[in-house]
Amino acid sequence: MSYDVMVIGSGPGGYAAAIRCAQLGLRTAVVERAELGGTCLNWGCIPTKALLKSAEIFRYASHAAEYGVDIAAGAMKADLPKMVARSRGVAEQMSKGIDFLLRKNKVEVIVGAGSLTDVPHTVAVTAGDGTATTYEARHIILATGARPREFPSIPVDGRRVITSRHALTLTELPESMVVIGSGAIGAEFATFFGTLGTKVTIVEYAPNLAPLEDEEISKLLERAFRKAKIAVMTATEVKQVVVDEAAGLCRVSVAGKKGEQVLETEVVLSAVGIAANTEGIGLEAAGVRIERGKVIVDEHYRTSVEGVYAIGDLIPTPALAHVATAEAIHCAEFIAGLAPEAVDYAVVPSCIYTTPEVASVGLTEAQATERGYTVRVGRFPYTASGKATAAGNRDGMVKLIFDAETDRLLGAHLFGLNVTEMVAEPALGLTLGAKAEDVIRTIHAHPTMSEGVMEAAAAAYDEAIHL
């Protein structure tokens, strides 16, 4: 069997590449060994957000009286198995949706583990029963994604020491948990389990939580965690995790500001990053160049082997689903002979679905200063937002950074309710080269959280009305 394009992997990069190739008239197949939709839809972004929604409902119900709602007498109870079942149902529904979209666009789905061979333009697909079939394709796109990173000092066993994947299917709520790592995965699970009553301690090696975010926002997140009774240990290194099954706990040896100490906890969640799925896909056989565990590509995602491309978590770009999708579309259009614009990694938004949420795009204040910009910074606190006050969520801030010489927007950093939805506006502003006046003069609906973007821009230029 021969195709114009074969895509190995069906996550946000893989299915987007396959659909776009098919839309452009290329005979396309996608190879997937597990569920359609990849990690994001099945074991990452989507089921995690479903669990967080359950936690949000639990939190609101716990505070119902503050909103004038009387709930019948009786203790609030978080039913973790039902939350997990709902989350898995959401993931299954989305995976079926990807199946529908692929078939609607006439993309053939081949079930099995795909790999390159030492013969150019060929893909070997091994089915579940071990039988292998070889296919030919003029172009092959690798989109095999990534998995949770593991370290010898944090031995994952799936029971006491778990990864995000295990956390998505727990059937019993742990009494205590140490979360190692405070990126999006660690911070979101700390929020989920902490909301449901688990005693959570989050340990971060860097000086601040969510270390890729603006430092001021990181400090606000730390304050929110402490307010939610989630213990925070920053600038702390995890030396070793030892499981004591007899005692039914883990001992986590750490070294930080208070010297060395041992934390005892029922469960350890390792959220120390991800590792690209480069094994078992024939990279060595085909001669594809790899450096530091990542596939090396050019601006069009071509690897060192003619006709082979790589996108998403496999390559040294931000490991985000929406980045993989953007790379996929560019790659597909390039293969089809179009002239797509390069993906602009300077305007990639980042979101962390904690409570409150974190969202950002562009340069942090420190980065802008390091690059030689003279900056103007505007801030708008949620305490001044009518919508936030009415919602009972006044913990938040919008922070915008402008170039003082040109008034051009350089970065946006948001913390609070709904900011993961609001970040699209400054992302568009950065893409279009917006200036402060463009943001200030854009009429924003009232009352909305989004008014905070306009107000922060106005504050940077001493034009704020509500501050």
Shape: globular
Share of helical residues: 25-40%
How far apart the termini lie comes to: 66 Å
Work out the helix count. Answer: 15
Chain oligomer state:
single chain
Largest sheet: 7 strands, mixed
Question: CATH topology of the largest domain, which one?
Answer: FAD/NAD(P)-binding domain
Strand content: 25-35%
Low-confidence stretches: none
Give the name of the CATH superfamily of the largest domain.
FAD/NAD(P)-binding domain
The pLDDT mean sits at 96
Radius of gyration: 24 Å
- The CATH architecture classification of the largest domain is 3-Layer(bba) Sandwich
The total tally of domains equals: 3
What would CATH call the class of the largest domain?
A: Alpha Beta
> How many β strands by DSSP?
24
Structural class: alpha/beta
Structure description:
The chain has three domains: 2-148 and 275-345, FAD/NAD(P)-binding domain (3-Layer(bba) Sandwich); 161-272, FAD/NAD(P)-binding domain, CATH 3.50.50; 356-460, FAD/NAD-linked reductase, C-terminal dimerisation domain (Enolase-like, domain 1, 2-Layer Sandwich), CATH 3.30.390. The chain has 15 helices and 24 strands. It has helices spanning 14-23, 38-43, 45-62, 80-104, 164-167, 184-196, 215-227, 283-286, 321-335, 365-370, 386-391, 419-422, 424-432, 436-441, 451-460; strands at residues 2-8, 28-32, 108-111, 113-116, 122-126, 132-142, 146-148, 161-162, 176-180, 199-203, 231-233, 237-244, 249-256, 259-265, 267-270, 274-276, 290-291, 294-295, 308-310, 350-352, 357-362, 375-381, 397-403, 409-416. The strands form six sheets. Strands 1, 2, 3, 4, 5, 6 and 19 form a seven-stranded mixed β-sheet that branches. Strand 17 (290-291) and strand 18 form a beta hairpin. Helix 1 (14-23) packs parallel to helix 9 (321-335), helix 3 runs antiparallel to helix 4 (80-104) and helix 3 (45-62) runs parallel beside helix 6 (184-196). The longest helix has 25 residues, at 80-104. It is globular and about 65 Å long.
